[in-house]
Amino acid sequence: MTKIDMGRYGIWRPWPRLTPELAREVEALGYGAIWIGASPTDPGIAERLLAATERIVVATGIVNMWATPAAEAAASYLRLRDAHGERFVLGVGVGHREATQEYRAPYEMIVDYLDRLDAAGVPADGRVLAALGPKVLRLAAERTAGAHPYLVTPEHTRRARTELGDGRLLAPEQKVVLDADPERARAIGRAQVANPYLKLRNYTANLERLGWAEEDIAGDGSDALIDALAPHGEPAAVAAALEAHHDAGADHVAVQLLTEDEQDPVPGLRALAAELGL
């Protein structure tokens, strides 16, 4: 199976805050992929981003299996692949129990969904799977091009690489804050981490597997946990935190730049691109 070439870094951004103009800026800065964050309810968002750019990969991060039938996801994938070649990657995942009333037997749901994608003609090397735990990571290795873990640390990346083995894409998401003031940076990071993610069992269980204590995860998260899940500092320090994922075995890191009051992300992404050598 061919590993998807997204370059070393991309951006992850909630789909309502992605525009063709931003896509062009991100491509010009040298990033290799745009991850459409959350399960997009706008069916045209990927098409607009692809049409506005020339080389950058556009990936869903992720389509929720409970919200979007496999037949619908497959039809969108095939249409976008026909129009834009291998620049579109279908990221799918099972979401979380608290957000979905129908949530039950998640592993079986994932297998069934992948079976349906197979039957509809979506190739394994054109899709990635949201995966945190060992069982789903192994499934990602067997049935897809690789894994797109969310809300993780380089330690998770190290473990995920072991489960995936060589030759499979490992593309973790990493939140960062470009701010050298620890208190201000933590406030920005905590606002994006604590609610909803520290209230969702799949994420808290993963943090427990990584060795975080109950008191770190409780409430809005300890300072140490927030610093690990949303590293902060000057561009050089943040770039080093991102590079730690590559040192741990990642192929690609999806950078989610957090800003105060939804500020324009381009200046920060430009500063990071310079530090990362894009």
TrEMBL record:
InterPro entries: Bact_Lucif_Oxidored (IPR050766), Lucif-like_OxRdatse_MSMEG_4141 (IPR019922), Luciferase-like_dom (IPR011251), Luciferase-like_sf (IPR036661)
Domain named Luciferase-like: residues: 19-115
Keywords: Oxidoreductase
GO molecular function: oxidoreductase activity
The keyword Oxidoreductase is annotated on this UniProt entry: yes
The EC number(s) this enzyme carries: 1.-.-.-
This protein's record includes keyword Oxidoreductase: yes
NCBIfam families tied to this protein: F420_MSMEG_4141
Designated name of the protein: LLM class F420-dependent oxidoreductase
Lineage: Bacteria, Bacillati, Actinomycetota, Actinomycetes, Streptosporangiales
